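We now fix the convention by which a protein and its fold are recorded. The integers have meaning only within a learned vocabulary of local backbone shapes. The record below shows the convention in full.
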Amino acid sequence: MTVHKLRARLESSEGTMPGHFFSSIRAASMPVVILTMMTLFMLVILPLFAGTKILHRWVLTGQPMPQLKKILVIAVVENYLIRQHFEDEMERLLDNAGVVGVKSHMVLPPRNELMEGELKQRIKESDLDAVLVIRPKAARLETKEVVIGGFYMPPPGYYAFWPYWNMTYTQFSSTSSYMEENTVVSAEFNLYNTKDEKLLWSGETDTVYSKDFGKLGKEYANALVKQLKKDKVIGKK
């Protein structure tokens, strides 16, 4: 039975929801308002599990966080488009937070052409307060279950107690979902103070890889800047 047929069947049912438990389990319909709430719930919650997730992080403690007004952002990635989209979005989001973001792809040559001594000298001669380095570490495949229709609905037979009870002793499986495989990229981020070269902020992330490089870069940048604000590394002191 399709989701649409099942919904039509539920909406056309004359069952009511009286207060008594056994009367309610005899009612075979689910109010439309509950279905609507379930749909809205899934639309709000699902995006939280997509894109980039910060797994854990470390923030400098025991001493005041320095005031960061200008940060050099370096994405150490092979794909230039991902690097460009990410650093461009970081510049925009940092600016919204009152911090000047400097894109490495605009001021630094490719890494294989940049000597360590030259980078140190450039940073020393600049007015940068910090350097943020993002580096991918590993990639893995993950499989997850995707519910068809955009929201979960109990299978037919689950809407009344006794039909469901009888099925608990039989082999039954729902066909309202399928398995999806994603590539998850693990990366690390580290923020260093240019004055004493000490670590200020560090952590690791998991990101669901996408061929939409613009979306990928923007989602990652948004996750980092949001966390920077939350950890009070940038913003009002």
